[in-house]
Amino acid sequence: PVAVAPLALEARGARSACILICDITRPVPNGLFLPILVKQLMDAGVAANKITILVATGLHRPNEGEEMRELIGNDWVMNAVTVANHFARNDEDHVDLGKTPRGTAVKLDRRFVDADIRIATGLVEPHFMAGWSGGRKVIAPGVAHKETITTFHSARFMAHPRAANCILDGNPLHEEQLAIVKMLGKVYALNTVIDEDRDLVHVD
Known about the structure:
By secondary structure, this protein is α/β, with parallel strands linked by helices. It has nine helices and ten strands. It has a six-stranded mixed beta sheet. A two-stranded antiparallel sheet has the order 4-5. It is globular and about 45 Å long. The mean pLDDT is about 90.
């Protein structure tokens, strides 16, 4: 992680932005921070119709209708910008960035790849394979093509003894995700931590 200026300054001169959010399976308090992010992007001069909130579904089903409204958590945001689901099986929706040093094919949603400002948001909690969720995991597998996702779920990663809860050091899945983010380029992140009542206790 690198310290950056306020988003309203970082985004000056940008023509487009894409904000990744987790799907409905993660209790992320989107309604608290999405209005702030969107307003800061607009204050920086990014047009509302050039801001996309992309639901990082991975291979999960899309979130639609009232479920999507619940997920976004703010009606102004729902009506102000484009809100869409990622579809991992749509070949044409992805950009092929090549392969990682380990040989994983890296194909990511072009709406995120092509955006001038890329923001990944999420929830930090223990993850049974990646060690911890949030950040890089919202990008891959979150908005990755099915080929990339199924590689992550292969025995090569799942059977590794370091691919486990709360382990990052030597975790091959975590290292692969970091390699993918490096291939993608500059990404901003907003990660949250919630308590047992699902109340927000920390933002980073």
